[in-house]
């Protein structure tokens, strides 16, 4: 569906994979913002039952959702793994929380970066906030088109169900995920439009900073991951620690070797952001195995996701974007 904006620069390739744009942006807004912090527990957590549904959601010390209410810890080994590798807090689950921000993530690179080099794709997520609201969380937007003069057309960022009020001439800070890197930049609002839906026309990005560069944007996470693996020794299942998450895979730390290189492992963990709330499930291939030299004998597996549905990919990208934009500025 081509988007035509009267009396504005023409939009290139502004297409959406849904029946209407309202369906695209009408996603759940049930959760609190990334700026809210969980309330730490002032006592030991309640005992984690074995073989029974959890009566409460289990959160880590940053408020990241580890296990949903109703999840079942199947064995004493799983319970002990949770206690040994996670610190529990009591509070509202934060959305898109990374374990640690990269200390060098905000370092400016010497060479200037152009819009063409950023390689932003139509539909790319963009986090945005007013230039003067430096303590406010980034608000989600999406790129819907370019003009010949390199202006950007983006959906209006939202606060709950309402669009964020930005006026022509206002400066904004933004973070976007390109094809091979994450960038921060500044723009000026050229126009704020409400027809045929709320969108903004932004000036060509300026003061572009390269924040991260790799084959797939990756964040340091601490996720409680349920796994199931089939090997010549039978079936292995349990709880592991998910780290180094990207759209292509993750590192899974477990108490035992789950299989040789090339083996398949099924993984599952909750994803909760301001846009999605779902259980991520995928088959993965073991690409490398690193035995720990520590006394605990933990094993780190490098996993590559395969056969991930479009819906699951969207959820994973949303989570990664929230993690990256939350620590970028």
From TrEMBL:
All copies of domain PilZ, residue ranges: 214-321
Location of the Type III secretion system flagellar brake protein YcgR PilZN domain: 139-205
Nucleotide-binding is among the record's keywords: yes
SUPFAM superfamilies: PilZ domain-like
Keywords, in A-Z order: Bacterial flagellum, c-di-GMP, Cell projection, Cilium, Flagellum, Nucleotide-binding
One example GO MF annotation: cyclic-di-GMP binding
Transmembrane segments: none
InterPro entries attached to this UniProt entry: PilZ_domain (IPR009875), Split_barrel_FMN-bd (IPR012349), T3SS_YcgR_PilZN (IPR009926)
Recorded coiled-coil stretches: none
Claim: Transcription is one of the keywords in the record: no
Protein's name according to its UniProt entry: Flagellar brake protein
